[in-house]
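Researcher: Structure prediction, please.
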Amino acid sequence: MLTDPQLQIYTVEEFIRLDLPEDGEYELINGILVPMAQPSGKHENLRTGLLVSLFWLKLSTALRVLQAAIASSPNSSLI
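Model: Predicted structure follows.
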């Protein structure tokens, strides 16, 4: 039986449940656990910028949906 977690094949569900060290990042590629190198400062800046942009996009979309729901409400004249 293989005990090294990197030598086993995992499903996504198994990967999510793995108790991996918190100081490392891993990817699951074709079922194989692959440790990732520490990201550079530039990578971290790009990642942070992308996450912030996605957050604001999601928030603005949610606000537009809410605004449309309020506008189509029968009591929208009260607002």
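Model: Residues 41-71 form the longest helix (31 residues).
Researcher: Thanks, that helps.
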